[in-house]
Amino acid sequence: MAARRPRTASEHDSDDDSYEVLDLTEYARRHHWWNRVFGRNSGPIVEKYSVATQIVMGGVTGWCAGFLFQKVGKLAATAVGGGFLLLQIASHSGYVQVDWKRVEKDVNKAKKQLKKRANKAAPEINTLIEESTEFIKQNIVVSSGFVGGFLLGLAS
User: Fold this and answer.
1) What's the alpha-carbon Rg for the chain, to the nearest Å?
2) Is the model's pTM score more than 0.85?
3) CA-to-CA distance for 34 and 123, rounded, in angstroms?
4) Where is the signal peptide (predicted)?
5) 6 — phi, psi (to 5°)?
6) Is-contact 63 153, C-beta < 8 A?
7) Which among 79, 57, 56, 75 is positioned nearest to 67, based on CA atoms?
8) If residue 21 lies in a helix (H) or strand (E), which one and from where to where?
9) Is residue 6 classed as helix, strand or coil in its secondary structure?
10) For residue 84, what are the CA distances in angstroms to 19, 38, 45, 75, 156?
11) What is the residue-level pLDDT of the chain in tens, covering all 156 positions?
12) What is the secondary structure of 77-134 as a DSSP string?
């Protein structure tokens, strides 16, 4: 891309136009598209690896995390659901007597304790959210690859 250089008074009379040549590769290195979108502080990963490498790294780690999350989630759901099912069968058969009033009382007590702890932990959670947001902004390409890989891992 050529930019027109301003003319001085002595050059004004001349018909020759002078142009300055800009190196687009250097310009592209200094002005990344994610800098315009997410700010100037793009993290260290952005400068070390190409965009394709970052997407592949994020995608592979995301797929692994999603696949493991799916398998562990199924196992946990099966264990919890099976436990409740066995408890209901045992209760219905008369092997176990469940005091539902006491269960309700304990659940309400636990709710109150959770609300108190949640109000105390709010600043810590906000700090964690801010740090996570900053990390995602600094590593947007890797984060995008991770999210895509994670969703594929859940689906497989």
Assistant:
1) 30
2) no
3) 29
4) none
5) -60, 140
6) yes
7) 75
8) strand 19-21
9) coil
10) 78, 47, 46, 14, 28
11) 455 555 555 555 555 667 777 666 666 666 655 555 555 555 555 566 777 888 888 889 999 999 999 999 999 999 999 998 998 888 888 888 878 899 899 999 999 988 887 767 667 777 888 888 888 887 788 888 888 999 988 888
12) HHHHHHHHHHHHHHHHHTS----HHHHHHHHHHHHHHHHHHHHHHHHHHHHHHHHHHH
Distances (CA, A) of 116 to 103, 109, 119, 123, 146: 20, 11, 5, 13, 35
Residues 67, 2: Cα–Cα separation, whole Å? 51
Distance from C-alpha of 103 to C-alpha of 105, rounded to nearest angstrom: 5
